[in-house]
Amino acid sequence: MYDLFVLGQLMDESMSGYLMRQILQQIVGRQRKISFGMIYPLFKRLNEAGYITLNDQVDVGKRSKKVATITDRGRIRFKELMIQKVPLNPNLEFTYSVKFRNFHQIEPELRREILNEYKNYLLENQKSLSQQIVDMKETPISAPDLKNAQWVISLKQVQMKAALQWVDSSLKKFAE
Amino acid sequence: MYDLFVLGQLMDESMSGYLMRQILQQIVGRQRKISFGMIYPLFKRLNEAGYITLNDQVDVGKRSKKVATITDRGRIRFKELMIQKVPLNPNLEFTYSVKFRNFHQIEPELRREILNEYKNYLLENQKSLSQQIVDMKETPISAPDLKNAQWVISLKQVQMKAALQWVDSSLKKFAE
DNA sequence: TTGATTATATATCAGACTGATATATTGAAG
DNA sequence: CTTCAATATATCAGTCTGATATATAATCAA
């Protein structure tokens, strides 16, 4: 899940798992606790796959640390993950935001593609939310239940709309 | 994670794990695959806690199924979870939406409390996003990197704003 | 100077969720 | 009468979450 984030972060700067966790935690905010039990096994996996190297760095007067550095294969992997379509999974929003964060690493053409892909996802979601309301009216549920369900959907709808406006204004800027 | 959803769903109607999964899948949409490997252990847990009973139901000409029915203790648990403050975890948004869906089961006073709690969460997030931008300007990162990071934050900001408007208009309706 | 606290750094664990697959029964379509 | 879809449950590997444990070094107060 955090593969692309970690590789993107290492593109310009090597760092320890401790610092990687700290930066990631700052980005995701209070809602998710970024855990060492995730970072270190992830580093291990990326290392075994040949995407990063792990080197013991001993600074005088400091405890030693394992510094992760991206390899050439890792840079290719980063590009692959940037090109790859974002899979429909619970981390989709996070994955898009990581891609956006790394826009300065890729060509303008690819940027527009990613933005359009995100736009399509939002449009599909809008369609699916409208459909949900239609479906609910057909299935027999009680009136207050139905009202609440529609109301909850309307929250998602306004958020989708806000995101769409953001994408459209971003696409305009990128066209300039 | 899905405890409140399941109990809320059983408040008016008993059902099998198969149907529960189907309804939940429809609600969460394409982004998350609701798994049997989650539903059945969850039913087992709720059963062992005394919140639901599981009864074999054999309809003629159909294969038998285990139907979950909420108990009195389960109804108390449902109320407890509705009153309980929503914890800061990755499922926060989902938990609020489940609470909203079950508004017809609770008193108007509690509805307003939940909406205000959600509003506070959104306001705190807005503050934290503004702070992130300030912090970024202080730490030395490259210009394009900074620009992208700010741009990503602006997406979250417009979505927070849309949600806040939704909450405020909802609070007005509930005050009528 | 010593003692306590905080920051850096890594490891490990139980519990839970995801996505997938396996298996069995019944109904419907052709 | 056979294939396909729908209903129904079980199980599994891999991964993430939240928490705790451990160790070293720096800082700051008494």
From TrEMBL, chains A, B:
<dbReference type="Pfam" id="PF03551">
    <property type="entry name" value="PadR"/>
</dbReference>
<dbReference type="InterPro" id="IPR005149">
    <property type="entry name" value="Tscrpt_reg_PadR_N"/>
</dbReference>
<dbReference type="InterPro" id="IPR036388">
    <property type="entry name" value="WH-like_DNA-bd_sf"/>
</dbReference>
<protein>
    <recommendedName>
        <fullName>Transcription regulator PadR N-terminal domain-containing protein</fullName>
    </recommendedName>
</protein>
<feature type="domain" description="Transcription regulator PadR N-terminal">
    <location>
        <begin position="6"/>
        <end position="79"/>
    </location>
</feature>
<dbReference type="InterPro" id="IPR036390">
    <property type="entry name" value="WH_DNA-bd_sf"/>
</dbReference>
